[in-house]
Amino acid sequence: MELTVLGISFTVLLLLGVPVAFAIGLASVATIIAAGLPVAVVFQKMVGGMQVFSFLAIPFFVFAGELMLHGGIADRIVRFANSLVGHVRGGLGMSNVLGCTLFGGVAGSPLADVSAMGSVMIPLMKKQGYHADYAVNVTTHASLVGALMPTSHNLIIFTLATAGIAAVSVFDLILAALIPALLLTIANLAAAYGVAVKRGYPTHGAFPGWAAVLAAFIGALPGLLIVVIILVGILSGVFTATESAATAVFWALLITVFVYRSLSWPHFLKACAKACKTTGVVLLLIGISSAFGYFMALYEVPQKTGELMTAITSSPWLIFLMVNILLFLLGTFLDMAATILICTPIFLPICQQFGMSPVQFGIMMLINCALGLNTPPVGSTQFVGCAIGEISVGEVMRSILPFYGALTATLMLVTYVPAFSLWLPGLFR
Q1: How far apart are the first and last CA of the chain?
Q2: Which residue intervals of 36-109 are DSSP H helices?
């Protein structure tokens, strides 16, 4: 009875358009009332869920990303990417993919990535004769690589969602995400080039020469170094994963204020306000999801889901495919953090039962959640890209299949070839 109340109330609230955090909280309250337990249990679980030292990494990574967004890093990255591939057919699309990937590594947020790079690249591509739907699709899909980068706070959220289920270190997850991020970038480049050739988009001049590429790289290097600093710092033991987030903020301030001198006081205040807002939303989701997770564990939701799936098939390949489909469907309605917090306790034990490593599962989930960010009705990166490109979501969806294909191909490789996510972590054990 209580489990029915939990599932139905949560689903109904989402369909009514109630924000995810409040839908989770209200469903938890309805369940505790149905169970005849004190309502205070919900708030105890919420507070306990947020009182974790590792959570300090989340506001720091978010703040670092906002500083990079408002500090003029994007323009220098665009110049570097354009110097490399701008001369290829559909060169601006290729530059867009590389630029979004590089800025995603700096900011660690798909939404910040599409906001920064989209505001630069989408109007420029339209001005150069590219269709708006192509410009938006290239930008929004390339920005999803940011979810896999070392500065992504979603990596931290996943490690915390595995508490009590499996021991997953942040550093293992960071290393595991690097090769899939590279695969996704290559797949996005192939999709962007293929569509550009099919539509007959032009080239944009000759290759500027390696001297120009080197000059553009040097200009972008201070911003790009943040990824290297985080990886080397954690690997060498200079700082922990949590301390690396504070280091990212320090470095972001250093280069935007003293090196580039592009961070104005109004932009600094805007970065502070946005970081506070994002952190508040994420921590609220984490706290409320802790209460929600308590009820799922209490009423054995993971076990019952696993029994249902194994009753359908005992093939690991089909089980992993079903998990991916369910994650995709849920990701179209839930934000990335909510999907991770709600679905990890349900699906991780099932995948472990069929031989999937928790680290591999984490990368699979992050890519799947990223796909949800670009799918209506809650595709936040797609909505931002469409707003910048001044085009409707429906028009963009009509030409999205090549880019979906790139993302899906990467997801399948990570799902069924463990080496893509486990090889690098294995080298450092």
Answers
A1: 46
A2: 40-50, 57-70, 73-85, 91-107
286 conformational bin, left if phi > 0, alpha if psi -120 to 50, beta if neither? alpha
The tens digit of pLDDT for each residue in 139-192 reads 989 888 888 888 888 888 898 888 778 888 888 898 999 999 999 999 999 999
SS3 call for 49: helix
Whether the model clears a pTM of 0.85, i.e. scores above it, the answer is no
**What integer pLDDT is reported at residue 360 of this predicted model?**
94
Helix (H) or strand (E) holding 160: helix 153-161
* Residue 397 Cα distances to 118, 187, 200, 411, 427, angstroms: 17, 19, 20, 20, 41
Residue of 344, 287, 284 lying closest to 44 (CA atoms):
287
Nearest to 176 by CA among 317, 364, 350, 327: 364
Helix (H) or strand (E) holding 384: helix 380-389
**Contact assessment for residue 371 and residue 341, using Cβ atoms and an 8 Å cutoff:** no
Domain boundaries, the chain: 38-427
Which two structure tokens, joined as six digits, stand for 244? Answer: 């690396």
Q: CB–CB of 342/334 below 8 Å?
A: yes
